[in-house]
Design goal:
The protein contains 17 helices and eight strands. It is of the alpha/beta class. The protein is elongated and about 100 Å long. The structure holds NADP nicotinamide-adenine-dinucleotide phosphate.
């Protein structure tokens, strides 16, 4: 990817070979003239896509001669003033700190639609947004915020290879409609987010790094460390201190494997606990119209992420369990047990209770994992969009409680198995 990104995004004029299909399109008569200010990566990719969709494109640069070779032949590269005068709709593909250098274009841009594609360097919570500042600089133009969530790469490779959604907002509905139309024509899906005051949120969108995952991931890690230390102390440290038994080899696989289901069970409990807290509070208040405290609100909103973390731990536990017999240590322990049995003259090691416990334990675990997979799949937006609210809540609530019950059984068998230290317990 770095090599690909270092290539010029658009082949120069007259460059043969490669994907010429985008440049092959000829501007449709009567199509609006689209101006782009700036000749950077974004401008070049956008120009290429607009030309391919039949638009007449005029690019405004401070040094047109220098940049002309980087644009498709069908696009005209000229001065900023000329581009602003010729265009019906203008994309401002210039960094926001340089917006002020465009003020001399004010008369040429008056009454026209300006599309602000800029992003911030860090999350801006207080405003004003770049688009609002641009609107203040050009009060006679109609500013539309949009396309900032689409990378130059996606524009170049087409919406097949990236997000198709373009979030748009503006205080002028006519200007917004013209950008919505353009957006559809170049193959993207416009999402109208209302007035220009939404632009702050649109500008912050590309800067978020999994905001709703932070607490669930921290909880998972915290629980993992807690249970790992507990299991390490109980199964490895204590035998070493008490009986000088060195079983440190258990640390990477066995101890991790015993830890994972505990984390999965607690995380699953954390999915359903906030619902119970909310119900309890509503009963106590005698009304459902009071606002929940902030911490409960956030917890309720993150239940899906808690559930998916639980699912991940359960899947890892299943994989680790399947791998247990593959270890050299397991095979050596098995052989030693067999030799010891022969030496002690024991003919049959079958213990009915242990065998039954193991069968039930595995069966409950498999069923719980299967149902948990169903819950995880149903939480995917593409699947959730295809079921109605009743079906969704049936899967997430009713089946969720069954999974909880299954997991409870599984957890009980797990604890019993550990207490009795069955030799062939998978965890
Ligand atoms: P870039 O490659 O650095 O290009 C910026 C262009 O701005 C320059 O090529 C320059 O063109 C022009 N410019 C005009 N006045 C300028 C001045 N006073 N000082 C410096 N340059 C000036 O940036 P870019 O990646 O295309 O990004 C442009 C805008 O698109 C930014 O606001 C960015 O946040 C937004 N954006 C970019 C991407 C992306 O993937 N690149 C994605 C979403 C949004 P001339 O020298 O020809 O005038």
């Amino acid at each position: 990817m770095p090599d690909e990104m270092s290539r010029p995004l658009v082949r120069g004029r007259g460059g043969g070979g490669g994907s010429r299909h985008l440049e092959a399109s000829v501007a449709e008569p009567g199509a609006p003239v689209i101006g782009i200010l700036g000749t950077g990566d974004f401008s070049r990719s956008l120009a290429r896509r607009l030309v391919a969709s039949g638009y007449q494109v005029v690019v405004g640069s401070r040094a047109p001669k220098r940049s002309v070779a980087l644009f498709p032949e069908e696009a005209e590269v000229t001065s900023q003033m000329e581009a602003a005068s010729q265009a019906d709709l203008v994309f401002v593909a210039v960094f926001p700190e340089h917006h002020s250098t465009l003020v001399e274009l004010k008369p040429a841009l008056a009454g026209k639609t300006l599309v602000d594609v800029s992003n911030g360097l860090q999350i801006n919570r207080d405003g004003p947004s770049n688009a609002e500042q641009l609107a203040d600089l050009f009060p006679e133009s109609f500013v539309v915020k949009g396309f900032n969530t689409i990378s130059a790469w996606t524009l170049q490779s087409g919406p097949r290879d990236g997000s198709r959604q373009v979030f748009l907002c503006s205080d002028n509905s006519q200007a917004k409609s013209s950008v919505i139309q353009l957006c559809r024509r170049i193959g993207f899906v416009p999402v109208d987010t209302g007035l220009l005051s939404s632009s702050l949120e649109i500008e912050n969108l590309p800067l978020y790094l999994f905001p709703s995952w932070r607490i669930p991931i921290l909880c998972t890690l915290g629980l993992f460390i807690f249970f790992y230390l507990y299991n390490f102390t109980r199964d490895i440290l204590q035998p070493f201190i008490k009986g000088d038994k060195r079983v440190f080899y258990k640390m990477p696989v066995e101890t991790v494997n015993v830890t994972l289901p505990s984390v999965a069970l607690v995380m699953l409990a954390l999915v359903y606990l906030p619902g119970l807290c909310a119900a309890f509070l509503q009963l106590r208040w005698g009304t459902k119209y009071n606002r929940f405290p902030n911490w409960l609100d956030r917890w309720l909103a993150n239940r899906k992420q808690f559930g998916l973390c639980s699912f991940l731990c359960a899947v890892l536990h299943a994989i680790y369990s399947l791998c247990l017999p593959l270890r050299k240590s397991a095979r050596i322990n098995l052989l030693n047990a067999a030799f010891k049995q022969v030496k002690d003259g024991v003919e049959d090691s079958w213990v009915d209770e242990d065998v039954w416990r193991m069968e039930l334990y595995l069966s409950a675990g498999i069923m719980a994992l299967g149902l948990l997979s169903l819950l995880a799949v149903a939480s995917l937006p593409s699947v959730a969009n295809n079921v109605n609210w009743r079906e969704f809540s049936f899967i997430q609530n009713s089946l969720g409680h069954i999974v909880g019950g299954q997991d409870g059984c599984y957890g009980t068998f797990l604890v019993l198995s550990q207490l009795s230290s069955l030799p062939d317990t998978p965890s």
